[in-house]
Amino acid sequence: MEKERAEGLAARAEEAVEGATARVAAEGGDGAAVVSDPEKCNTVTFVGADGMEQSFPLDFLLERGAIVANRVNGEDIMSVMGATNQLWVPGLPAKYFVRDIREIRFTNEEVPPVIGPFVDDGHDYTNRPNVAAKAEYVGRVGEPMEFSGWAHDFDKRIIAVEFSLDNGEHWTRYDLGDTTADRWVSWTFAWTPEASGAYQMKVRSVNEDGDASPIAAVHTFEVL
């Protein structure tokens, strides 16, 4: 079973990493033993194009359902996150998420790395819950404009998305249906301008605790 799990993770990683190869037999770090037999693998190390390395216990990644993503909500991840791919581990903050992965090493370490329980001390999440927004930069009076984006809060559900056109003085709230903490929310919002001028749409998400994004997503546009 362990062999099948290790081979399965390698196959998923190789399929997900665009333009890179998940090398099962690669040079290990100091004291690392290269794994030719997946049954003996206990550690997975991700190496980014910038040299960043992050190692995890194999069982930890499998239990968390870790993935190497190259698309977000059907869009190429480059347009959303600014990278060709990114590691994503449910329940962990972004500091663990290696981007632009160029190598994945499967090794057998005498002492596997330990990823302790994460405690949110306010330093890892600068904007929680998080949100992003995009739309056209030019609209026309009387014609609907569509805004879209995503929202997530790591281990909490997103229950609503709010919009403001008066710099946050007033917010229009739209409650969401069934959502889960392990899936991002993809949202769309249509608004029809009634007058020409320069506008700024602010968007924030709300989690299951009622907390709203401390930093709203902002989209500035002009209506002709």
From TrEMBL:
Q: Which residues form the Oxidoreductase molybdopterin-binding domain?
A: 40-111
Which InterPro entries does UniProt cross-reference here? Ig_E-set, OxRdtase_Mopterin-bd_dom, OxRdtase_Mopterin-bd_sf
| Pfam families in alphabetical order | Oxidored_molyb
UniProt xrefs under SUPFAM superfamilies: E set domains (SSF81296), Oxidoreductase molybdopterin-binding domain (SSF56524)
UniProt name for this protein: Oxidoreductase molybdopterin-binding domain-containing protein
Which organism is the protein's source?
A: Adlercreutzia hattorii
